């Protein structure tokens, strides 16, 4: 159960042997029915992924502030997991719609397993911070202190800061017959306060919310002066102290409840169901329906209660009762709660405690035509297709500049683009607006249902509409997740189409931290494909055929399975056969079963999976030819690559789709076929580096657990694949 599997690897082997022994028709082993229990559980596999994030925080070889950053990532990941996955599971159980998972675990078993594993991991998470990272930060002059650790002089100066900067924005809420228990917003930090009236002796409960606009920590410089962390300069960081704001509020509750006796106060935090359910029968009203649902989401039921250690039984029971949270969903943790706030500490200007700075370079085939004038993207793309690898190669000097140049070029007649997640101040959004203002035809296909970016997407979708951009919201019932841009340009009396197909979002901010791939091309077939796909998304074209694209929900699963089966046929015919896959998540049972059959037929399947992985690897008779690795590092591994030997003529696709039901059945996704031999070689080299035993990674074992490989037999650190790529990319720059 801890590994998220319902059946042990030994039991799987026994089932496979029994099936083979009972076969009387001479059926080959790889054609036998596959055993039950061959899938790992999706939810528990996700917790295993977040454990790998935690192991990054535990790795003493990493820079100290980066370790603190991984603690913040772990906390943020877990918040989203409870808001969406746990909340959805609870909702399905409550409505009687929950069914046994593909792993064979019942909904209740999954929920119980989540509770056990999440509590183990959160305790470990807190311990790493308290016992390891916080003391080491203190050794570097960054002291994360409790109120009691401050000197009297510092406490006095913070009290003045409290009265001036914090007290005016606090709102105490009493609970009595005239004041019902207040609504506690999701992920907010709160103080539960027990008070006693000095005259009547009656006890009262009150809640004080920590306003989210206040900084998570208050900085106290070496002179004892308190200030907001963003106001403290690098010269004042030496021997700076940081105090959780809730502790400062807790020590000054007498300002909020004058005349009352403060009996006790405790920090707590609630996680709510924040997944969206929007009826899409009427696509015209989707925007307004989503806006209404965003309001409703703020009042979703509580799915997790976090409280600080030391809370009294009475106060805990009151919170559980009023919030409708069980003991199973209650997490008692050391203070401070909500370690997402360590992002603030990570942002301090202390480069010696962070990864060495890396400046992205311009992609080789774009830099080749650099001169005193800006790169002519259209000439560069006409010369060759351009493979981009972010963030090693700059997003701003490639994709962003391509679209900016297209917006300003008088020969460009139209720009069409999908936008799944971006930022409101994005130069790409500005470029689309500039193009519309210049009279070009501009279509933006905005996915306003991108989880947790809904409000931002609505805001800038309206901004685009006001500028005259044609904004559409995709197909009813499907999220548009593909990453596509199409530029139509008039050249020598005819039209030429320039295209970008990528694996990552058109977001300049995340492009600096997400590892992604993309192709810039003016290939006629790709131009036709994107034209047809955009027409399908903005109009009516349900039976579109494509040349170089595989498009979900119609083609990606079937297309990949066809290629897996071709590798099986080639292997059985004695031809070269292998499969190499890099993606974020693998859950789709049909695709996994095809990979199992390939393994049984002797095809070597090598995979790099960052997150959820429902495959049972290395099980004799089932998947002994499947090897799965996972890589985490300073950049979020986000690219998807699907590569097949194809009897010596490698067949490779990159694109937006993971092997999950939502990607293959409920989203518009696109994979593009790679044709340039240099690009094929580069992608295969990337896969080889990621899969090498000399590369630091986690290996998926037969029992469903992940084992970290960070050192060789002599105790020497293994290769950091991301550092290798940085060095290689800089090397290409130096040889030009």
UniProtKB/TrEMBL annotation:
User: Where along the chain is the active site annotated?
Assistant: 481
Secretion signal: which residues? none
State the SUPFAM superfamilies in the record: Phospholipase D/nuclease, PHP14-like, PPK N-terminal domain-like
Where is the Polyphosphate kinase middle domain positioned along the sequence? 154-342
- Molecular function per GO: ATP binding; metal ion binding; polyphosphate kinase activity
Q: Which family does it belong to?
A: Belongs to the polyphosphate kinase 1 (PPK1) family.
Q: State its role.
A: Catalyzes the reversible transfer of the terminal phosphate of ATP to form a long-chain polyphosphate (polyP).
What protein name does the entry list? Polyphosphate kinase
């Amino acid at each position: 159960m801890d590994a998220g599997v319902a059946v042990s690897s030994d039991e799987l082997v026994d089932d496979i042997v029994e099936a083979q022994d009972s076969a009387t028709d001479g059926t080959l082993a790889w054609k036998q029915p596959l055993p039950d229990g061959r899938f790992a559980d999706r939810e528990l596999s996700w917790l295993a992924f977040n454990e790998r994030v935690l192991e990054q925080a535990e790795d003493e070889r990493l820079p100290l502030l980066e370790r603190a950053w991984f603690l913040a990532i772990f906390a943020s990941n877990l918040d989203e997991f409870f808001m969406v996955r746990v909340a959805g599971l609870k909702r399905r159980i409550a409505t009687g719609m929950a069914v046994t998972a593909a792993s064979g675990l019942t909904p209740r078993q999954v929920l119980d397993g989540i509770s056990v594993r999440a509590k183990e991991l959160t305790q470990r998470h807190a311990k790493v911070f308290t016992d390891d990272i916080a003391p080491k930060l203190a050794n570097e002059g960054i002291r994360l202190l409790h109120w009691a650790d401050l000197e009297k002089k510092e406490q006095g100066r913070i009290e003045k800061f409290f009265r001036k900067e914090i007290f005016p924005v606090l709102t105490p809420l009493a609970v009595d017959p005239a004041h019902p228990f207040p609504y506690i917003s999701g992920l907010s930090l709160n103080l539960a306060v027990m008070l006693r009236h000095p005259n009547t002796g009656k006890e009262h409960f009150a809640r004080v919310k920590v306003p989210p606009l206040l900084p998570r920590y208050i900085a106290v410089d070496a002179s004892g002066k308190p200030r907001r962390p963003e106001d403290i300069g690098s010269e004042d960081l030496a021997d700076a102290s940081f105090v959780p704001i809730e502790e400062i509020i807790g020590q000054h509750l007498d300002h909020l409840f004058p005349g009352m006796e403060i009996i006790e106060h405790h920090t707590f935090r609630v996680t709510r169901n924040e997944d969206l359910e929007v009826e899409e029968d009427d696509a015209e009203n989707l925007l307004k329906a989503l806006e209404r649902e965003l309001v409703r989401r703020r009042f979703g039921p509580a799915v997790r209660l976090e409280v600080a250690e030391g809370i009294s039984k009475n106060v805990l029971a009151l919170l559980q009762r009023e919030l409708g949270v069980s003991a199973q969903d209650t997490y008692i943790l050391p203070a401070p709660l909500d370690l997402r706030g360590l992002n603030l500490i990570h942002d301090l200007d202390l480069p010696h405690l962070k990864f060495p700075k890396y400046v992205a370079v311009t992609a080789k085939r774009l830099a080749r035509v650099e001169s005193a004038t800006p790169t002519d993207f259209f000439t560069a793309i006409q010369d060759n297709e351009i493979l981009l690898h972010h963030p090693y190669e700059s997003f701003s000097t490639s994709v962003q500049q391509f679209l900016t140049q297209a917006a300003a070029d008088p020969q460009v007649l139209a720009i069409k683009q999908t936008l799944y997640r971006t930022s409101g101040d994005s130069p790409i959004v500005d470029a689309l607006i500039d193009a519309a203002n210049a009279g070009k035809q501009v279509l933006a296909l905005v996915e306003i249902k991108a989880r947790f970016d809904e409000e931002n997407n609505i805001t800038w979708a309206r901004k685009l509409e006001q500028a005259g951009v044609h904004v559409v919201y995709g197909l009813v019932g499907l999220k548009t997740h593909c990453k596509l841009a199409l530029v139509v340009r008039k050249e020598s009396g005819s039209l030429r189409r320039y295209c970008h197909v990528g694996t990552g979002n058109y977001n300049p901010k995340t492009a600096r931290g997400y590892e992604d791939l993309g192709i810039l091309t003016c290939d006629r077939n790709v131009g036709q494909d994107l034209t047809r796909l955009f027409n399908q998304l903005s109009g009516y074209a349900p039976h579109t055929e494509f040349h170089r694209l595989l498009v979900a929900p119609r083609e990606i699963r079937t297309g990949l399975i066809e290629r897996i089966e071709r590798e099986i046929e080639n292997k059985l015919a004695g031809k070269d056969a292998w499969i190499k896959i890099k993606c974020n998540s693998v859950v789709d049972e049909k695709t996994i079963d095809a990979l199992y059959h390939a393994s049984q037929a002797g095809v070597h399947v090598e995979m790099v999976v960052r997150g959820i992985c429902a495959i049972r690897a290395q099980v004799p008779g089932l998947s002994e030819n499947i090897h799965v690795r996972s890589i985490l590092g300073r950049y979020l591994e986000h690219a998807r690559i699907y590569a097949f030997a194809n009897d010596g003529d490698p067949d490779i696709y990159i694109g937006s789709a993971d092997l999950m039901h939502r990607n293959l059945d409920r989203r518009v996704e696109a994979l593009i076929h790679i044709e340039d031999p240099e690009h094929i070689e580069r992608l295969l080299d990337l896969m080889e580096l990621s899969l090498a035993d000399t590369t630091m990674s986690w290996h998926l074992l037969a029992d469903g657990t992940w084992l970290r490989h960070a050192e060789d037999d002599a105790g020497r650190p293994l290769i950091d694949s991301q550092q290798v790529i940085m060095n290689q990319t800089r090397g290409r720059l130096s040889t030009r």
